[in-house]
Amino acid sequence: MTEQRIVRAAAVQIAPDLDDGAGTLNRVLNALDEAAGKGANLVVFPETFVPWYPYFSFVHPPVVTGAEHLRLYEHAPTVPGPVTDAVAAAARRRGLVVVLGINERDHGSLYNAQLIFDADGALKLKRRKITPTYHERMIWGQGDGSGLRAVDTAVGRVGALACWEHYNPLARYALMADHEEIHAAQFPGSMVGQIFADQMEVTIRHHALESGCFVVNATGWLTDAQRERIAPDEKLRKALTGGCMTAIVSPEGAHLAPPLTAGEGLLIADLDMALVLKRKRMMDSVGHYARPELLSLVLDDRSAGPVRRSADLPSWSASDDADADQAEADAADRGSDQRVAVLRGPARRS
């Protein structure tokens, strides 16, 4: 009989400190203490919460946002650095698995990064959003496939995606194929209106059903004073309303607590991990319900960079050319395309 395992999850919906990244970090640490006090084992924060999501780029044209963009650079954390050290120490002290969204500064570029800390404080994953959306492309660089994976933690296998990455079915499938049990979803919140919240709910509930995993989704919140500060023009300010759907969803697609759609708060729910197997017994999208000989994913999971050094490249020998020639000849004899050879398994990593 499967041993019962319960994970208490917390999804955090709070406002950042728009003046100081250190102030936002303090809010993160206070939320971790509060969640731990309520018995949480896992805590998920909103998208790029530290130091703050770049709301300014959504309501103002790029030509007038230079100062705010530079200010974001000034407060954006590096990985590793003092911010990650502080969160790691809190995770270790409280025995928490933490999923934190940050604006990561890497020399002259910013990235939308998701960090997963284990309960012992170890940083198990740093991934970057693979395609920033719309206005975000003026703010962040693009990530790579190295972060499209789940990691083992004290609460189970955890994967993460940010915002509209959930509209990329292949990105989601990469995490499914890596057998995530808990999916951390992060959105900015306080944007676009009710339609954004509605779309978000559909998206996370569908992923829970399709992946057969729990989804813990956190969205951010802006106070009225913060909205007015970002957008003094009332017409523009309307674009910074609604769009909050902090929620915790079971592998059967059901809310485990009423979602938080306005205001600051901590959403808590207990995850009965036996529901993962219960769902997958019926429909395992990367197992008995998959057809890898017909449909599969090829994923380049190498870390990308501006320079690839010779030491990182595969060695070459004359036999490599001979093997390639023979494979091509065999494929021609079969009357097939050689590319068929890589389309095996639900997700093949290069």
Automatic annotation (TrEMBL):
Region (Disordered): 306-350
InterPro entries: C-N_Hydrolase, C-N_Hydrolase_sf, Nitrilase, Nitrilase/CN_hydratase_CS, Nitrilases_CHs
GO MF annotation list: nitrilase activity
Domain CN hydrolase: 7-273
Composition bias, Acidic residues: 320-330
Family under the similarity heading: Belongs to the carbon-nitrogen hydrolase superfamily. Nitrilase family.
Protein name as annotated: Aliphatic nitrilase
Species of origin: Methylopila turkensis
Species classification: Bacteria, Pseudomonadati, Pseudomonadota, Alphaproteobacteria, Hyphomicrobiales
